[in-house]
Amino acid sequence: MNFKYLSMILVAIALSGCASKTLYHWGNYSDTLYASIKEPTAESRAKHKAELSNIIAKAEQKKKKVPPGIYFELATLEANDGNKEKAKEYFSKEISLFPESKKYVELALKEMES
Length: 114
Description:
The protein is mainly alpha-helical and 114 residues long. The protein contains six helices and no strands.
């Protein structure tokens, strides 16, 4: 009886290790975001923007989902750089992946156009 109980525990532990995979690919998002906030320089901003693009590319390669807000954040950075068409493209992708973000995107688009 103890062997059966121990075997079930070992199987449960082994399976829990398999379940630790994430739905989204986050890359180095938190590191580059922190750096861009801690020392807001053109270089740290560019690194964070590049990491957002990298997250999108890697998510597709790894067949994972792009995390919520990544396209939105990239769109706002593009809008701040004056790339309104690229920003609109990213806003559109955010809505297609996360329809619940539509109100926020509409507000951001309105702000971008003013």
